[in-house]
Write a structure and sequence with these properties.
Elements lengths: L19 E5 L5 E5 L3 H6 L3 E5 L2 H13 L10 E2 L5 E2 L3 H26 L1 H8 L23
Antiparallel strand pairs: 1-2, 1-3, 4-5
Helix pairs in contact: 3-4
């Protein structure tokens, strides 16, 4: 299971740390960008995912330890140089598909129980078509007038 390195705002802004992070763009694409420009990425609608590479995890390790976290918990595998890294795209995408399936199942259950309109108002979202109940066609008996 992919475990994201939590964002520490001490890493952002005018800092001497040269950390890189993975961001999800509004269109869903992922990009490795300098974390010190975090606020700029956020104003463009991007979402922080995790640190991007082994060096960034190594540099952030003292901060993680000071928060009572073990940096080794965020290692997903090895990078191209054989160093422990917090970012493996395939593992992230696999985890996202499992999370999406769980969220879809929950949303479908809520729609079945409360209806599309109620769920959309409460959640403030548009329920995707594939999660809406199928409209049941009303069949008229043979010989009935139209």
């Amino acid at each position: 299971m992919f475990k994201c390195v939590p964002l520490n705002h001490a890493w952002t802004g005018s800092t001497k740390l040269d950390l890189h992070a993975i961001y999800k763009r509004p269109n869903g694409n992922l990009a490795a960008l300098p974390l010190r420009r975090h606020h700029q990425w956020m104003t463009k609608g991007m979402e922080y995912v995790t640190l991007a590479d082994a060096q960034s995890l190594s540099d952030a390790a003292p901060f993680l330890r000071s928060q009572g976290l073990n940096p080794q918990e965020f290692v997903c595998g090895l990078d191209g140089d054989g160093r422990p890294t917090p970012w493996i795209p395939a593992l992230y995408l696999e985890t996202q598909s499992v999370n999406r399936a769980d969220a879809d199942a929950e949303l479908k259950s809520l729609v079945a129980e409360h209806g599309v309109d109620v769920v959309e108002r409460i959640r403030g979202i548009k329920v995707p078509e594939h999660l809406k109940p199928e409209a049941k066609s009303v069949r008229k008996p043979a010989g009935a007038a139209a």
